[in-house]
Design brief:
The structure is a homodimer. By secondary structure, chain A is α/β, with parallel strands linked by helices. Chain A folds into 2 domains: 176 residues, Quinone Oxidoreductase, Chain A, domain 1 (Alpha-Beta Complex); 140 residues, 3-Layer(aba) Sandwich (Rossmann fold), CATH 3.40.50.720. Chain A contains 11 helices and 16 strands. In chain A, the strands form 3 sheets. In chain A, strands 3, 4, 5, 6, 7, 15 and 16 form a 7-stranded mixed β-sheet that branches. A 6-stranded parallel β-sheet of chain A has the order 10-9-8-11-12-14, with helices on both faces. In chain A, strand 8, helix 4 and strand 9 form a beta-alpha-beta unit.
Amino acid sequence: MKAVNVKQPGGAEQLQVKEFSKPLPKQGEILIKVNAAAVNRTDIVNREGKSGYNTNPILGIEVAGEVVDVASDVNIEKGTRVMGLVNGGAYAEYAVMPADRAMIIPDNLSFEEAAAIPEVFLTAYQTLFWLGGLTDEDTVLIHAGGSGVGTAAIQLAKQLTKAKIITTAGSAEKLDYCRSLGADVCINYKEESFPEEVLKATNDQGADLILDFIGASYWEKNLQSICTDGRWILIGVLGGTEVEKVNLMQLMLKRVQLKGTLLTPRSDEYKQQLTQDFSEHVLPLIQENKIKPIIDKIFKLEDVQEAHKHMEENKNIGKIILRIDEEG
Amino acid sequence: MKAVNVKQPGGAEQLQVKEFSKPLPKQGEILIKVNAAAVNRTDIVNREGKSGYNTNPILGIEVAGEVVDVASDVNIEKGTRVMGLVNGGAYAEYAVMPADRAMIIPDNLSFEEAAAIPEVFLTAYQTLFWLGGLTDEDTVLIHAGGSGVGTAAIQLAKQLTKAKIITTAGSAEKLDYCRSLGADVCINYKEESFPEEVLKATNDQGADLILDFIGASYWEKNLQSICTDGRWILIGVLGGTEVEKVNLMQLMLKRVQLKGTLLTPRSDEYKQQLTQDFSEHVLPLIQENKIKPIIDKIFKLEDVQEAHKHMEENKNIGKIILRIDEEG
């Protein structure tokens, strides 16, 4: 089968489509004929050889496709349309996945739309609810509102709670889109001071919960934007990993709760439980079109270098999808 | 009445005993004839003018004494022996306190022993249980094991859970004492690498919970000592407030939960609830002599400068008490 790996750790030019042998489903697993995969920041970190937790030579962590084979202990019918997180190996014609975290694709979604769901929606769900404990009374600040996780988080917060949603993004187009998804306060971080705007929108109290995909470059500003006893979930480092001079007294005086998290390196058991909770509470809303996957652009697998470059340019609103066409 | 205030923000030499007017109990308050108060780090920070949350000109945040007057809406008998947190004003002959957070002093304790309870035991209780969620299966790393909060935390962890207790201190004498209170692993941070010893004691997993009174100087070492998904409660900055470089990716990879906290600036309501929970679960153990206040040294109120200097020399094991003798 064809699949994408990395020649040498480095830029998008290191990605290549190569012939691999088809994986075999081990106990508890299913084999999926992949129709679509999606590009994630974690794929770029892996491409650069910087993650330290990737063991699969084939890139990619989420797929949508059809079940074509199952292990003897698995009770899923061949032909079932499924989506979900894989432990690497998504940018390929075939991939294996633990059966207990395969989600059945709602009928109203194409494979490309389904591939836009797992990673960003599970991450946003985990961050908002499992780690962030978002409630109706909260104000949540969602950075990178136009990103895959951002667009997912805005929709989830809107549909599952009455929380006030503040988001930041770098263009009017992205902010308009965020507003259409349910964001209440939309801040252009290139033109406005987001801490000032957050304080304005919260009676000078600050946000109860921050979803931080930015990291170092926003450290001080997030500290200004968070309320006393606020929760701050660190889930990405688009703005760098290293903060110079962190004042611990500020963390103590504001009694900040800072939680670092990543989804990809977590255990199979955790991913299964998260998937199950998400399926129960969110898939029905997707079926009713109240929550929708947001696709920015679809690339062919062969154009994977272009797809990575597109993400690195930060211009996307929503997900970048790889379509895997059958050979021949 | 005589009481202690600060001439100008600065060192211990700025402390003076002066004549103040006796405070009056407002609604919901009691007036206490103070027999003993205790010295806390927060008093030193206030003396230096650095806390930003102190409004009472008289220093001190905890007292033990006798109720001599009550507001009309309070139902506590005069003559009752009580201890608890005050909103400043403890280093004095008389102090007022919200009645709903006065704890009745167990019969087996002197006033000096009682004054050694509120701040450090409530802080340790809050940190271990309300914020740290300590369970029987956890390993907890308690820094500054010989300090007031350290000796309280070791006893509370030992008596209320089956958790494994690791502590650090800077002398063999302090470590022996920690062991006698229930610490399982005692590390001399001046002679050993505490992250190495913590990893050794936890099968290379790291501690589930860290009580950090040290801050900046231990930042990297705490990060090495904590387990994946570990909880890290930042409650003091004896080792400085400013961390030169914080690597956020490390916080994400280890999925650290970092919570900053302080007790003194919290609301009256919070202190009342904490006191109530503590009274229910811990006072009976104090009555049975299973948990005991640890007194390092008792000073007369007039020797308050010496008392502060003694704390700043870091040689104490347990609490430093001020005894307030009647005038004349």
